Amino acid sequence: MLTWKDVIHFSVNGNPKPNRRVEKSASEWREILTPEQFRITRNKGTERAHSGELCSIHEAGLYHCVCCNEPLFDSTIKFESGTGWPSFTQPIKENAIKYIKDNSYGMIRVEVLCNCCDGHLGHVFPDGPKPSGLRYCINSESMKLQRTDDENNN
Fold first, then answer.
1. Active-site residue 116, yes or no?
2. Which of 7, 57, 77, 86 gives the lowest tally of CB atoms within 10 Å of its CB?
3. Could you give the C-alpha distances from 1 to 5, 43, 51, in angstroms and in order?
4. Predicted local confidence at residue 153, as pLDDT
């Protein structure tokens, strides 16, 4: 289980190696993403609180990166944080997420990216529930939910 200490370690000393890498030009990303998905994932944007489709969904399944389809989070570790963005306590595996120290807007935060394609997902904070104490605050537009029923029907 990852802890805040692990997150800080990765953001300062380097991230775990991803299982694969996906690299595309901006024009290639624009071809496969909606304008809002592109703004958020490739330009480090943020959706308005409580506006994302995945914020209030609690169906069983896996949350994948909207850019490269890499699995990021399992629905079993999603929780209602009250912040207005989908929140998770852990990534699906240690090397699914890349951690970057973020000093923007006069505060120190840790930005989270898809470790496979560097798509911006959101931020992680040390104010989540036990046992990890982590809250991955993720933009809905940066993910897609592959419902368990969808996986069984493919």
1. no
2. 57
3. 11, 30, 30
4. 47
